[in-house]
């Protein structure tokens, strides 16, 4: 998988990406698309750091392994990526992390403007993450 405008390469097991991780990868790599022949999936609009967090999930069953308190923007970026890739199980885990973060901030809802802008630019009005951020 080549991520971002600089095409940062990530090596991953195709079987893991397709079978247990993402219908997006299953369609791209096992369908009639060029990615099925080349076994290279370009995701030029995504962030390599966020994809690295995503990729740690199917391999280690954990996200943000070195950071127990990720920021609002990091959580937002990961949720949007998992939405694009069609991974509802991981989306739910990110939502749980959002809620835990909200509780640790004393329920003040101090979500950084960058996170709100990121979500609003990349999600639909009825998106669960957008609705949750509005509620917070």
UniProtKB/TrEMBL annotation:
This is BTB domain-containing protein. Residues 1-67 form the BTB domain. Gene3D superfamilies: Potassium Channel Kv1.1, Chain A (3.30.710.10). Transmembrane segments: none annotated. InterPro entries: BTB/POZ_dom (IPR000210), SKP1/BTB/POZ_sf (IPR011333). PANTHER family: BTB DOMAIN-CONTAINING PROTEIN, BTB DOMAIN-CONTAINING PROTEIN-RELATED.
């Amino acid at each position: 998988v080549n991520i971002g405008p600089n095409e940062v390469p990530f090596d991953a097991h195709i079987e893991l990406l397709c079978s247990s991780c993402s219908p997006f990868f299953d369609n791209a790599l096992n369908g009639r698309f060029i990615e099925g022949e080349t076994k290279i999936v370009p995701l030029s609009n995504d962030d390599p750091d966020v994809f690295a967090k995503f990729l740690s999930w199917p391999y280690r069953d954990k996200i943000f392994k070195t950071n127990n308190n990720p920021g609002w923007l990091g959580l937002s970026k990961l949720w949007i990526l998992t939405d694009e890739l069609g991974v509802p199980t991981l989306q739910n885990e990110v939502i749980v992390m959002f809620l835990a973060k909200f509780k640790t901030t004393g329920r003040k809802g101090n979500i950084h403007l960058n996170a709100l802008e990121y979500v609003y630019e990349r999600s639909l009005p009825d998106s669960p993450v957008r609705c949750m951020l509005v509620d917070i």
